[in-house]
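Researcher: Please generate the 3D structure of the following complex. Treat every line as part of one assembly.
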Amino acid sequence: MLERGDVKHAAQLTSAPAAETEPRPLPAYLRLVRDPKVVCAGGFILFLVVLAIGAPLIAPQDPLAQNLLNATLPPVGFADAAPGFLLGTDGLGRDVLSRVIYGSRVSLTVAFVAAGLACLIGSLLGLMAGYLGAATDAMISRLVDVWMAFPPVLLSILLIAVIGTGLHSVIIAIVVIDWTRFCRVVRTETMNQAQMDYVVAARTIGFSRPATLFREILPNVVPVLIALLTLEMGIAVVVEAILSFVGLSVSSDTPTWGGMIAEGRQIVHEAWWVLAVPLAALFATVVAFNQLGDGLARSLDPVLRR
Amino acid sequence: MLLAVIVRRAAMALITLAGVAVIVFVLLRVVPGDPVAMMIGPGATAADIAALKARYGFDAPILTQFWIWVHGILVGDFGSSITLHLPVTEILANRLPATLELAILALLIAVLLGGSVAIAGTLMRRTLGETIIDGLNSIMLAVPDFIWALALVLLFAVAFPVLPLTGRINPDLAEGFATKFYLTESVLTGRFAIARDILSHMIMPTLALALPLAAVIVRLLKQSLKEAMVQDYVLLARIKGFGELRLVLQEALRNAVGPTLALTGVQFTFLIGGTVIVERIFAYPGIGNLAIDAVINRDFPLIQGLVLLFGLIFILVNVAVDLGVAALNPRLRHA
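Model: Done. Output below.
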């Protein structure tokens, strides 16, 4: 039985024997750990995942515990700061640091689940459009065009209005909006791959069309997909923050960065840190996902690599 | 040939807009929340509710409702807002100028800022300056308007409180305008003190909208410029003794600007989408801020009108970009 990718390997061997004289490129994982961008950004995301999972053990205070006597205490190092509240307290006296740590749970859940689902749906449709072509392609491509005529922010708010607020609504809204991104990229990439010798070879030795698509083409689309997925996670985190900010995400008793930012925006003249701390967390997370995606694209893309 | 492109694009645009209209209409009719229930007091009787439904036409079959709506659009009547009790067209006409001024000013700033940084980066290529520009820009590319807006709040309303945090104009000055294009009108009629007040309100929202677009322009234009700078025609001009700045501005820029122009057009539609949240943050009275209120209040007629308006703006921008690119591309122009 042929393993995935064997046909491509064989096709390369027969069509390009001269390749052996060139130095062999490093394997992908080695290139990744040598890229400082990937290491730093990936390290930060990993740190965030640990924070989110271990929030009950790591957070110094109960994120929901209110104490109006402790309201709007500044971060440690400023006048009037209290030692128990490293990054200060909000208008209800809740610990900002603990709330940011707990807030990472919602952000990361949305990042992984919403971006993952959008990736799954978009890629499937993209693979079909790119490989089957003709009527399937025309239909899917037209659908993508109509979809992208909607302003994304407006569409997400409209969707939430229709299906109600909550974490599942935010995830659905992001999937509904952003599958098109994956669909377009995967469609183009699949079309490029379908032209290659190895695909013809696979068909010639008797692979069925679905087998060719999933066992030969898909593994070669995956590198592009991983980079895009990482970028999409950054976008999902921002969309969730925006929807929480407007008050359309999870209920207000769950700490979210967007919800904290909305509260901070209201009392920005009295307590700037209530806005600044979650904003900094959001900024760092978005930049990290973006840099990781950039680095992955560069390391995994065979064309950019050279 | 250019005419054929225009006709084809316009036809596609109309089909897309019709699709958007149908989707929005159907989507809003399957909503579980009843708009009438939101409008009426808790003590209302079934008869009151039925009367109100009849008044706004919610009791008719969905196809009839759709027909009334489409017919209304064709004669310029979008219905009345449920919460504001005004014709939708009137509300949109009052709010749209504020958003247009905001978006166009942001576009101008993005092009000027992005263009000059790209040119500066090209002049400094293979120096420390270029490395710094590239490094900063790769981070800027990741930062969306939402984060910029709030960072600007912290900078210009808290750390250095020099700019007004909310609104479009000092209410005392908002008298005696013939149009709703306050900035344009005050500049054209020479009322510069008022123009300065409006600009001070607009700096933060426009910057928040402009900076992400500027970052995109820097990356693409700089790359195109660098590619153009090693072409033969630039070498020829260099041999003729042209200075470096003149090489970039006069020779490379003209040939490198095409792809950036096309992308700027696409990105401009994102910028317009961004006005929704940025207007919200700065309580700026445009259609974006209105859209969020309309959705929170389930104001169906207003939501429908707003989505169609946004769809129309997007399509117009896309057609304009296609025309601009076609007009700049000699192969299409003479084909």
